[in-house]
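Hi R.,

Here's the chain you asked about this morning:
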Amino acid sequence: GGDIYPLGSCQLLERMTALYTIQPKPGYFIQDVKVDGTSVGSVPNFTFDPVYTNHTIRATFARKAPTYQITAAANEGGSVLPAGAGAFTQGGAMAFAIIPKSGMITKSVTVDGVALAVRERFLFSDVRRAHTITASFASKIAAEAGYGGSISPCGEVTTEYNGSQTFHIVPIHGYTVANVLVD
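And the predicted structure, written out as tokens:
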């Protein structure tokens, strides 16, 4: 169903880099690649970098394209769309939109357990294994005090969706809290 290049055994000097290409024959797909007996997915390339010991690499091929699950989840402060989970064919691509509800902000985006910079979209391209994407949303509160007192914390404060935030309002000597505006 396919080949690994370079073929056969290779002798390499210690600390060298060895790149292997996994190539299915026409009508076949990469089912799985195992390195030293452990699956690394259906990758089209694998690099041993650097080489310190003997290794094995083995590929299996199939006539039917494998499918992989991509699971999307978010807290109630927004959505990752399309939501839920879906099966995607090997080599396919899927874009996800990260959308906060009105008044909310995106606090974090995590892909396969790795925190990423906050973003509005994420693209999985050349899908060759299962993935997860999660987003967490929060709200921002602007807190400021006029002359005659202070509020703590002060400035822009981020709170978890459905969370709470306590503010301490302290008037200076001779002043009282006249009103607190909340919108």
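Residues 58 and 165 are 55 Å apart (CA to CA).

Let me know if you need anything else.
M.
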